[in-house]
Amino acid sequence: MAETASFAKAMPGPARGRNPILPQLLSLLRLVLSVCVTLVGLAALTFLIGRMLPIDPVLAVLGDNATQSAYDAMYVKMGLDRPLIVQFGQYLWNILHFDFGNSLLSGRPVSEEIIRVFPATMELATLAMLIGTGIGVPLGVIAAVYRNSAIDHVARIVSLLGYSAPNFWLGLMGLVLFYATLGWVGGPGRIDLIYEFDLQPVTGFYLIDALMAGNWELFGNVFSHLILPASILALSALAYVSRMTRSFMIEQLEQEYVIAARAKGVGRWRIVWTHVFRNVAVQVITVVALSYAFLLEGAVLTETVFAWPGFGRYMTNSLLAGDMNSVTGCTLVIGVIFVGLNLVSDLLYRVIDPRTRQA
């Protein structure tokens, strides 16, 4: 007995002496380090792009008629006479304080310009993502359940249309039909001119500002301007989300646990939503997050057609004008958006699927 007892004490228990929180903290630390390294790499990339482009930053500030003495003084003032590693260190310090320099077009800080235009794009992309996800996910699930049926063919046609139809053409046709002909929606811009003085911008999101003011007529006008460009933009997200959801669902519907559940008499839709969709939810979250990021940075054509004063239009105008401070600032913001959404997706994985918490 004594020998058996001593042997049992010598054997390490599977959970004895282990801290269950430590693996999760290590995983979180690895995640934070990965995000930091990615952001530093992104900053290095934008710094090098700004230095390699054939645009002289000094002439961009002073103009082509600047004298040599003015050129040399500005060259030193901008820190371009320092070694590249020192310039990069100063660049990192500035962006940590959200300082991207001044815009050549307006003379204002680029950070203020981004804060001014970004809510317009975020409002547009968020509504587009809600429409695309709200329709795309159920459409993909139903198409997978009724594979090769008429519903599946309709879903494929919708996906093909979303992938192939140019947004600018859809936007123009939408304006001609729903605005100019039928008068169902508002025209270009975020709001009619007669309502501009009624809106007091607080958050920059016109729908929220109108709700905060309690002005339902103003809210209706803002929504009428928003719904058409958001729907046009949502079509591409809908196509991607529905196609990927269908693919994920088809793969899971062919698994043995689905056959076993059917043999036990479990209802079809209970199997689909309770078991199958739960297994693909993590993958769907990734698709939705990436789609949202692409909508935030890829709404340039839609914003141009609808005269939407947003982030994409601002970045395009800055690029055409050679305003590199604005271009690099916008590029960094886009990169942070992608990294941030990937981080949110990873955190949601851990909430939805407990198995990932041990990774």
Automatic annotation (TrEMBL):
Q: How does it sit in the membrane?
A: Multi-pass membrane protein
Q: Which SUPFAM superfamilies match?
A: MetI-like
Stretches that traverse the bilayer: 28-49, 124-146, 166-185, 222-241, 280-306, 326-349
Subcellular location field: Cell membrane
- Keywords noted in UniProt: Cell membrane, Membrane, Transmembrane, Transmembrane helix, Transport
One Pfam annotation reads BPD_transp_1
InterPro entries, per database record = BPD_transp_1_N, MetI-like, MetI-like_sf
GO molecular function, one example?
dipeptide transmembrane transporter activity
Predominant cellular place of this UniProt entry's protein: membrane
Q: Which residues form the ABC transmembrane type-1 domain?
A: 118-349
Q: Which Gene3D superfamilies match?
A: MetI-like
Q: Which GO terms describe its cellular component?
A: plasma membrane
Q: Which family does it belong to?
A: Belongs to the binding-protein-dependent transport system permease family.
Q: Know the name of this protein?
A: ABC transporter permease
Organism of this sequence = Paracoccus alkanivorans
Lineage summary? Bacteria, Pseudomonadati, Pseudomonadota, Alphaproteobacteria, Rhodobacterales
